[in-house]
């Protein structure tokens, strides 16, 4: 009932096509942990990879490239949160080169991102050493 957004079709499709794999934990009471999360169900975190200044993902061990897109056809703001220690964040083009908008402020809630309908964003996250 309702729209595909209300029914959670995007999430159900990912759940079906990319099922979670269970890995044994070292203890029964291990704390929960999430590498990345986004605060809006309209935004899908599609890829995380090692980034490079030359546009090749294998060449930069101190940075991660996160690619996200807006899937509901809406204009929305979201928080990108990570458990990794981030030194700086910046928007990149699809070739992984920093854009003119430059650096994104790091806040307690994470990195604030804004999407127009079906927009793809690439964010370079430089890790603290």
UniProtKB/TrEMBL annotation:
<dbReference type="GO" id="GO:0009313">
    <property type="term" value="P:oligosaccharide catabolic process"/>
</dbReference>
<dbReference type="InterPro" id="IPR041147">
    <property type="entry name" value="GH38_C"/>
</dbReference>
<protein>
    <submittedName>
        <fullName>MA2C1 mannosidase</fullName>
    </submittedName>
</protein>
<dbReference type="InterPro" id="IPR011013">
    <property type="entry name" value="Gal_mutarotase_sf_dom"/>
</dbReference>
<dbReference type="Pfam" id="PF17677">
    <property type="entry name" value="Glyco_hydro38C2"/>
</dbReference>
<dbReference type="GO" id="GO:0004559">
    <property type="term" value="F:alpha-mannosidase activity"/>
</dbReference>
<dbReference type="GO" id="GO:0030246">
    <property type="term" value="F:carbohydrate binding"/>
</dbReference>
<feature type="domain" description="Glycosyl hydrolases family 38 C-terminal">
    <location>
        <begin position="43"/>
        <end position="105"/>
    </location>
</feature>
């Amino acid at each position: 009932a309702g729209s595909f957004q209300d029914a959670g079709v995007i999430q159900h499709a990912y759940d079906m096509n990319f099922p979670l794999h269970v890995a044994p934990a070292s203890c029964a009471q291990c704390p929960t942990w999430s590498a990345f999360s986004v605060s809006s169900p309209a935004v899908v975190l599609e890829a995380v990879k090692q980034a490079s200044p030359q546009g090749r993902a294998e060449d930069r061990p101190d940075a991660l490239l996160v690619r996200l897109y807006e899937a509901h056809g809406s204009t929305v703001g979201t928080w990108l949160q990570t458990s990794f220690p981030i030194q700086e964040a910046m928007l990149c083009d699809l070739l992984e080169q920093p854009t003119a908008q430059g650096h994104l402020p790091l806040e307690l809630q994470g990195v604030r991102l804004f999407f127009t309908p079906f927009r793809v964003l690439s964010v370079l996250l430089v890790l603290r050493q």
